[in-house]
Amino acid sequence: MNDNKTIKEKTIALIDSLKSTCQTYGMGNDGNEYKIITQVFLYKFLNDKFGYEVKKLSSRLANAEKWEEEYTAMSEDEREDLLDSLSADIPKLYPEHLISTLWNQQTKGDFELIFDSTMIDIADKNAAIFSTQTTQNTKIPLFEKLTDFVTDSSQRAPFARALVDKLAKFSFEEAFVERYDFFADIFEYLIKDYNTSGGGKYAEYYTPHAIATIMARLLVGNNADLHNVECYDPSAGTGTLLMALAHQIGEDRCTIFSQDISQRSNKMLKLNLILNNLVSSLDHAIQGDTLVSPYHKSDNGQELRQFDFVVSNPPFKMDFSDTREKLAAMPVRFWAGVPKVPNKDKDKMAIYTCFIQHVVNSLKKTGKGAIVVPTGFITAKSGVEKSVLQKLVEEHIVYGCISMPSNVFATTGTNVSVLFFDNSRRIENPKENDERHNQDSVILIDASKLGEEYKDGNNQRRRLRPEEIDLIVDTFAKKEAVDDFSVYVTYEEIIAKKYALAAGQYFDVKIEYVDMTPEEFNEKMAGYQAELVKLFDEGDKLQNEIIEQLKKVKYES
């Protein structure tokens, strides 16, 4: 077994043991379990990351049998000099913050207070770098009191001891040489129980790693000349799309901006950013309603800030009737309109149409974007959906569409497609630029038949294989037309098809011709006729039997 496999298995075992501890103390599948798991996991990660980095700076610590004891023995000035030498993305921890210190205090009767105060103190001392914020500029700290979630106060100290015991037996140090793929898998495993549609109307729809990878590879390509790139997700969720994008660009060459209404998402996004060496972007991770109160604005504070890359996997349908009129009063932002409130099924308001408009508005003049939409949208015939689709096509904003296999999302059975935008193609006045309709083209891919089936609990799911991901990416990038898979069509052709972006609508209908003699043809037709006569006779017989049986049915009092 190689080292990579070993550390991955150890990390997964740690996650399982933390979930087991929560279950033991009555919080299995509790609404607060995800807070405990993600924050304790993050505390351990930062503790070990701190140790890993200070040992690189100090030979005294590196050569010590127990670096924690040697660090504690340092003078205050020595420690401060060491902490000042750390890069800004490494938390500043003091001896009292270390897991080893907590371990040595477990016998104290008020251990739950010691545990909670340690976490809070770490958050306070690192608030400038490691906190996120709301649209109202309220700081959200790194950690919060965790033992309060145990309702039986007598069980809080044992619970804290159990957590520390699990943390003290594990080390992340082997993992620090790992990169994106390792932490993407770990993060997905860590949060898999907390990203279900049962989480309410703002459930965190986790984007499958394969789809996130496709979106990132197609938007960025192999461009090695990118620097100071700004990436944005207005419905960031747990940050999967942004992490894939940052990895494709290079984590040290981009800054991440995000917003999401969900508190739960914010906590998980924070963890994801830290795991992927994007600590400097924490300050740009905003909790709040993007549509009503977009946080990221231009320098004058009036217009939306615009970005190099924008990605989004927004909620598709939900009740936003409380804020609908506010959005409708912003016609510049929502140029295609805002869905009306239906008399019934308010939770089916197509909120994703507002996010499409927001994504387009957030692109720089040379910006590119991608958004996940329900596949039904790409052939919309009416309403706001049709208005959005029409603008995307007529102004040449959309340059590609991929229809994905069904059941690729764990939280929804809705078939999804991914739209790709390129703002550099945009035609401001399409009626004055009719000649361009035949010059620019759009790549459309139907990947709905790809993927392999697998069981996810009791549910049947589908996932794309690595070679299928490569096929989609290569076909899209090369703009290849492949029978029953992809087409490369002009905007004029799309307009003629009433703005449809479904590849299947452009596939040639193939009629298979078979050579046969007149005798063979007549023989085949005679066979069909004989079969039909047989079926009709059987149908008549069955009909008569039913009628006879009905005649025998009598009323009994």
Descriptive overview:
The protein is an alpha/beta fold. It has three domains: 3-176, Ferritin, CATH 1.20.1260; 189-506, Rossmann fold, CATH 3.40.50; 513-557. Helix content is 43%, strand content 13%. It is built from 19 helices and 13 strands. The protein has helices at residues 3-24, 33-57, 59-62, 67-73, 76-85, 99-104, 111-125, 127-130, 156-168, 180-191, 209-220, 240-249, 263-275, 321-328, 352-361, 383-394, 466-478, 491-496, 518-552, and strands spanning 132-134, 139-140, 229-233, 254-260, 285-287, 307-312, 363-374, 398-403, 416-422, 441-446, 452-456, 459-463, 486-490. The strands form two sheets. An eleven-stranded mixed β-sheet has the order 2-1-5-4-3-6-7-9-8-10-13, sandwiched between helices. Strand 1 and strand 2 form a beta hairpin. Helix 11 packs across helix 12 (240-249). The radius of gyration is 29 Å and the shape is globular. 38% of the residues are buried. Mean pLDDT is 89; it is low at 197-204.
Produce the secondary structure layout:
Blueprint: H1 3-24, H2 33-57, H3 59-62, H4 67-73, H5 76-85, H6 99-104, H7 111-125, H8 127-130, E1 132-134, E2 139-140, H9 156-168, H10 180-191, H11 209-220, E3 229-233, H12 240-249, E4 254-260, H13 263-275, E5 285-287, E6 307-312, H14 321-328, H15 352-361, E7 363-374, H16 383-394, E8 398-403, E9 416-422, E10 441-446, E11 452-456, E12 459-463, H17 466-478, E13 486-490, H18 491-496, H19 518-552
Parallel strand pairs: 1-5, 3-4, 3-6, 4-5, 6-7, 8-10
Antiparallel strand pairs: 1-2, 7-9, 8-9, 10-13, 11-12
Helix pairs in contact: 1-2, 1-9, 1-10, 2-13, 7-9, 11-12, 11-17
